[in-house]
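Subject — a protein and its fold
Fields — amino acid sequence, structure tokens
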Amino acid sequence: MATIQECREALDTLSDNLARADGGVRGAAALDRSLSCHITDLDQTFTGRLDAGRIRVDAVAPGPPAAKAEIRLAMTGDDLLALVAGDLKFAKAWASGRVKLEAGFRDLLRLKSLL
């Protein structure tokens, strides 16, 4: 089972990957939205912002998100690590229910290019 530190490092790596991306991926990630990522098996939630193509983690707290972020993710820590490492494809994980993504309709349309 992944640790909180490994999940934090995975989010930092994902942020770095988004910042280096080009074309459609960079454009899709260039939102300014509040973000939460609930790690279900650890029952911890990272909160922050997706801003200018980077993920900024501001806090980690026990339990599900205390406030409703504009973009909400939920998954196990192992799935987060596998997604960032490229061992798990987001679309497959999302379709099977392993990863949950909630956002407004327009944000979902923009984020679909990340899938």
Remarks:
- The first strand starts at residue 32 and ends at 39.
- The chain is about 40% helix and 30% strand.
- Residues 14 and 114 are 12 Å apart (CA to CA).
